[in-house]
Amino acid sequence: DAGVHSKAWYAATCDRKMAEDALYRSNKDGSFLIRKSSGQDSRQPYTLVVFYNRRVYNIPIRFIESTRQYALGREKSGEERFDSVAEIVENHQRTSLVLIDSQNNTKDSTKLTHIVRVS
């Protein structure tokens, strides 16, 4: 268990569109939630959805089988790994998360500051 099910930021039944709509409605930088990934792939079980600068970022959360840990985005050397999804959230409530806009090739960063609930 990734430690997500009892958390306020976990939107269990939420799809990508519902998550994005909820974040656009919140319209606050640092708004976020975690949803199940669309693909239902065991190596990428969840997605961190973050609102920043009028944009929504969908960041895959990977499960690393060999270490039983979680990491954000594509695999990279020296990446941060966490023992649970909750640890990722707690870490990025304190330290900024780098947001990469692949369309415009820009980087931003924000902390996870506002939990968004999908109704």
From TrEMBL:
<dbReference type="GO" id="GO:0007169">
    <property type="term" value="P:cell surface receptor protein tyrosine kinase signaling pathway"/>
</dbReference>
<dbReference type="InterPro" id="IPR036860">
    <property type="entry name" value="SH2_dom_sf"/>
</dbReference>
<keyword id="KW-0727">SH2 domain</keyword>
<dbReference type="Pfam" id="PF00017">
    <property type="entry name" value="SH2"/>
</dbReference>
<dbReference type="InterPro" id="IPR000980">
    <property type="entry name" value="SH2"/>
</dbReference>
<dbReference type="GO" id="GO:0005737">
    <property type="term" value="C:cytoplasm"/>
</dbReference>
<feature type="domain" description="SH2">
    <location>
        <begin position="9"/>
        <end position="116"/>
    </location>
</feature>
<dbReference type="InterPro" id="IPR051751">
    <property type="entry name" value="Immunoreceptor_sig_adapters"/>
</dbReference>
<dbReference type="GO" id="GO:0035556">
    <property type="term" value="P:intracellular signal transduction"/>
</dbReference>
<protein>
    <submittedName>
        <fullName>BLNK protein</fullName>
    </submittedName>
</protein>
